[in-house]
Design goal:
2 domains; 2 strands; single chain; 96 residues
């Protein structure tokens, strides 16, 4: 028997919610119909938006991380807000 096209669902790439939906469909209507329904549903879902890397944020991380690892810099939970001021950089603790 030939492998049906719906059997090509790669479960390693699915999110936890998608796996739950697939398993629920398989239990409720059977494996074959459930996988077909899931494949049809998955095809209608929007593709995730690819976010471009922020090179400035990467530069800040690359500069500060060695200091954090050495123990010379401690960043508290919640972190800091970094802003640009007139001829200076303003660093403030984030307030909840």
């Amino acid at each position: 028997m030939a492998t049906p096209s719906f059997a090509r669902i790669d479960q390693d790439t699915l999110t936890k919610g998608q796996l739950r939906k697939l398993e629920t469909l398989r239990r409720s209507v059977g494996d074959e119909i459930g996988e077909r329904a899931f494949a049809a549903w998955l095809a209608t879902q929007p593709k995730p938006v690819v976010v471009e890397k922020d090179h400035d944020a990467e530069l800040i991380v690359d500069t500060l991380w060695p200091l954090v690892e050495d123990g010379a810099l401690e960043i508290p939970r919640g972190g800091y807000l970094i802003r640009r001021g007139r001829r200076r950089v303003i660093v403030e603790p984030v307030r909840p």
